[in-house]
Design a protein that fits this description.
The chain has ten helices and no strands. It is mostly helical and 236 residues long. α2 packs antiparallel against α5 and α6 crosses α8. It is globular, with a radius of gyration of 16 Å.
């Protein structure tokens, strides 16, 4: 990988970590399309590895606002969805995976932008977890269903709950991927190189997250995700 590509991915990780830390979503939706353009073999493992410390930090920072019942129901569905996501990852090639990332990012962003305000029931939260498990394990992008479920909640509730759901799910996905032989040393090395960018983005978000309880940043993140998804589709 060239130095230019390395720093572009690093810049993307910085911006994505800042967006996730500030708004509660956006890391994988922003990072996956860009990473898949330069190094599709890093998907989804690098994103899953990086999101563990990121979401641990966000969840701890606003732990008082966590919706524990939602985390429980989503995590149950998430576990089941992990195995379907692994099956997709094993049967598609890199070209198909890039298209899957692009279309899933674009469709999820549009749905999240257009959906009206509503409250999820127990069944709905379980389904959200199932879909998240499928998409995050296969593409590294699991945020849109969670964002859809919590996008109209208060900022602290969205950020903390989504972060904890992510954290549980990412550990599950990485264990399943490791057992199936999908984690490689070069991917872990690249993930380690991205940690400084991740740390800087996460740290920067603490200065603005308490001011972002409205829709502005959500629209920015989802709008950028839509554009990124289109770029990946055209590239693929």
């Amino acid at each position: 990988m060239s130095s230019t590509a390395l720093y572009l991915i690093g810049l993307t990780v910085f911006v994505s970590a800042f967006a996730q830390g500030a708004s509660g979503m956006g890391f994988a939706m922003l990072a996956a399309p860009v990473v898949s353009l330069f190094a599709p073999t890093l998907i989804p493992v690098m994103l899953l590895v990086l999101m563990i410390p990121l979401n641990a930090y966000i969840g701890w920072r606003e732990r008082a606002a966590i919706d524990w019942n939602g985390v429980k129901l989503i995590s149950i569905g998430r576990f089941a969805g992990t195995f379907l996501g692994l099956w997709i990852l094993l049967i598609v090639n890199l070209h198909q995976l890039a298209l899957l990332i692009g279309w899933s990012t674009l469709i999820a962003a549009v749905v999240a932008l257009l959906s009206p305000s509503f409250d999820m029931n127990r069944t709905g939260l379980g389904i959200v977890g199932l879909i998240t498990g499928i998409t995050e394990t296969s593409t590294g992008v699991g945020g849109p269903p969670l964002a859809l479920a919590y996008q109209h909640k208060r900022g602290p509730v969205l950020r903390a709950t989504v972060a904890l759901c992510f954290l549980v799910g990412e550990v599950i996905s990485l264990i399943v991927l490791a057992v199936s032989g999908q984690i490689h040393a070069d991917t872990l090395l690249m993930s380690a190189k991205m940690l400084p960018f991740l740390a800087l983005g996460s740290y920067a978000s603490k200065f603005v997250h308490h001011r972002l309880d409205g829709p502005l940043l959500r629209y920015i993140v989802l709008g950028f995700s839509s554009i990124s998804g289109i770029v990946v589709i055209l590239q693929a």
